[in-house]
Amino acid sequence: MNTKIAIITGASRGLGKSMALHLAEKGVDILGTYNRNSDEASAVAADIERCGRYAKMVQLNVGSMDAIAAFVSALPKTLSGAFGRETFDFLVNNAGTGMHAPFVETTEAQFDEMLMLHLKAPFFLTQKVLPHMVDGGRILNVSSGLARFTYPGASAYASMKGGVEVLTRYMARELGERKITANVVAPGAIATDFGGGRVRDNPQINAMVAANIPLGRVGLPDDVGAAVSALLSDDCAWINGTRIEVSGGQNL
Asked: Could you say which architecture CATH assigns to the domain 5-194+220-242?
């Protein structure tokens, strides 16, 4: 039986890094992407290999359809060269950036950037890599708690995540004939450098968010990484078309 291979976009830092390491600890090989920092990506690959798994990190700007096309065109060769096969098992659409701007001040350029990164890229990257995904594969799209609750300044970002949640249900419905499942993981506020590190580095924001979480703290990357490795395990094979929020019960 082949070792499972996961493609994780945005795997060089933050949540994507934690996802990659948790999956590697469960015996999954990782094809990760990064946007700019090759040193960070190389360090993550080394950590994965220390877990006894194979790793390959590839540069990909999901904000460019041309870059997505080039990534997909090279995918069979990339997989074969790194893992000895031309197919993969799991796709985690994680890459993206945050954007904080009041609704009345959000520009068209900011809106379009969020649309590309958080909705158009997962839509078309998934569509284009499907011929290389095994039947019975898994798709996991990353949304946000902000698609359920609201904080001023996140209207464009959260709207795209809401779109991802609808898209995921359609993926689950239409790809079922290939026994491919599609689900959403929706992190709450997590202490990373996402959005400029606002939750991690601003004590006032951190305390305000923690006060709205029954468990009394903001989330950590490993809270999400561990959840992702569980959702992609055989134990969760019957979960499909579902949104799982990983927020500690934020803003209940």
From this structure: 3-Layer(aba) Sandwich (3.40)
Annotation marks residue 157 as catalytic: yes
- Indicate the residue type of 188: G
The 10s digit of each residue's pLDDT in 148-191 is 999 999 999 999 999 999 999 999 999 999 999 999 999 999 88
Q: Do 156 and 101 touch, CB atoms closer than 8 A?
A: yes
Say whether 161 is catalytic.
Answer: yes
> Which pLDDT tens digit goes with each residue over 110-154?
999 999 999 999 999 999 999 999 999 999 999 999 999 999 999
3-state class (DSSP) for residue 18: helix
Catalytic residue among 18, 143, 155, 229: 143
Annotated domain spans of the chain: 5-194+220-242
Q: Which of 56, 120, 155, 157 is catalytic?
A: 157
144 an active-site residue?
Answer: yes
% of the chain at pLDDT higher than 70: 98
The interaxial angle of helices 14-25 and 221-231, nearest 10 deg, is 50
Judged by DSSP in three states, 103 sits in helix
